[in-house]
Design a protein that fits this description.
Helices cover about 30% and strands about 35% of the residues. It is an alpha+beta fold.
């Protein structure tokens, strides 16, 4: 992502050991996030506001990651207190060409788990939306990505500065939001690509209309 020119949150490029966690943390500044390298779905993420809590939090995250993922490797990343979680749906042809199908706003979360996903993102500048979509497509071009994928960004709420978070190299449970908005059946297109056929649409064919919202149900006692 860095090679493709996408903005990246400041963080450690390598695994962090307990003995050098403090040095790395002060280089990044507080608040920061301790993250499991093999984490996912919001598991293995802990916020550190006070430098005095760093060691305990790092050890707890390592223990959690070891149990959940079989790998206790952690890294540090700058934390943005006021942020939105915006992701771009992409589809790559596998030959360096790719298209985007606009964004989904997944900012409403509980325990770092998405609860509501919608598109278009409400109260979101078109110029930022286009910049994010372009960045996502550039990354797909570079990697010669094939099939459906989602590129996720964290967006500072006041400045709208955005940073690359990760790419999910698969179709996601939020895909009906995009399908309702664009009229493109992403599952059908996945099957087309897998069968060696060409996609049935181009970027110029994608014209979002209306507004779509998907809600998840958490089976828990609140």
């Amino acid at each position: 992502a860095r090679k493709a020119g996408l903005p990246i949150l400041p963080g450690t490029d390598e695994a962090v050991a307990n003995e050098n966690a403090s040095t790395k943390a002060w280089e990044l500044g507080f608040p920061l996030m301790v993250k499991a390298a093999d984490g996912g779905g919001g598991i293995g993420m802990r916020q550190v506001d006070d430098p005095g809590d760093l060691r305990e939090t790092a050890e707890a995250t390592q223990s959690m990651a070891e149990k959940a993922f079989g790998d206790g490797t952690i890294y540090l990343e700058r934390y943005i207190p006021k942020a939105r979680h915006i992701e771009i749906q992409v589809f790559g042809f596998g030959d360096g060409h790719a298209v985007h199908l606009y964004e989904r706003d997944c900012s409403t979360q509980r325990r770092f788990q998405k609860v509501i996903e919608e598109s278009p993102a409400p109260d979101f500048p078109d110029v930022i939306r286009q910049k994010m979509a372009t960045a996502a497509v550039v990354l797909c071009h570079q990697e010669r990505y094939r099939g459906a994928g989602t590129i996720e960004f964290i967006v500072e709420t006041e400045t709208f500065e955005f940073f690359f978070l990760e790419m999910n190299t698969r179709i996601q449970v939020e895909h009906p939001v995009t399908e309702a908005l664009t009229g493109v059946d992403l599952v059908v297109e996945q099957l087309r690509v897998a069968s060696g056929e060409a996609l049935s649409f181009a970027q110029s064919d994608i014209a979002p209309a209306g507004h779509a919202i998907e809600c998840r149900i958490n089976a828990e006692d609140p």
